[in-house]
């Protein structure tokens, strides 16, 4: 497997997770059919792609990247799409998450290169 392929799987897993979580918000507690179906399909795709990722990237590192990037994207979608504002402590916390993902990718010797 090329070194890039697990990261493509991971990126796609993140995109589907973000779609699933955004649709979960729109499903209104699974009371709306279409967003509920999109949520289920997106989460299934996300976990399938994450499983492919885990063939190469260690689970702790893959999950840290998957969840960290997902949190940032969901916070941005919440801000722009659902008008959910973030205060200074929330922005500082999100910045720390970004810093953690950068440190993992830049310095961890556990990642395949």
Automatic annotation (TrEMBL):
GO annotation, cellular component aspect: plasma membrane
GO molecular function, one term: choline transmembrane transporter activity
Keyword entries, A-Z: Cell membrane, Membrane, Transmembrane, Transmembrane helix, Transport
SUPFAM superfamilies, sorted: Multidrug resistance efflux transporter EmrE
Superkingdom of this protein's organism: Bacteria
Pfam families named in the record: Multi_Drug_Res (PF00893)
Signal peptide start-end: none
Principal location: membrane
Localization: Cell membrane
InterPro entries per the UniProt record, alphabetical: EmrE-like, Small_drug/metabolite_transptr, Small_multidrug_res
Membrane topology: Multi-pass membrane protein
Entry's transmembrane regions: 7-24, 36-54, 61-82, 88-107
An annotated GO BP: xenobiotic detoxification by transmembrane export across the plasma membrane
UniProt record similarity statement: Belongs to the drug/metabolite transporter (DMT) superfamily. Small multidrug resistance (SMR) (TC 2.A.7.1) family.
UniProt cross-references to PANTHER family, sorted A to Z: MULTIDRUG TRANSPORTER EMRE, SMR FAMILY PROTON-DEPENDENT DRUG EFFLUX TRANSPORTER SUGE
Protein name (database record): Multidrug transporter
Organism this protein belongs to: Methyloceanibacter stevinii
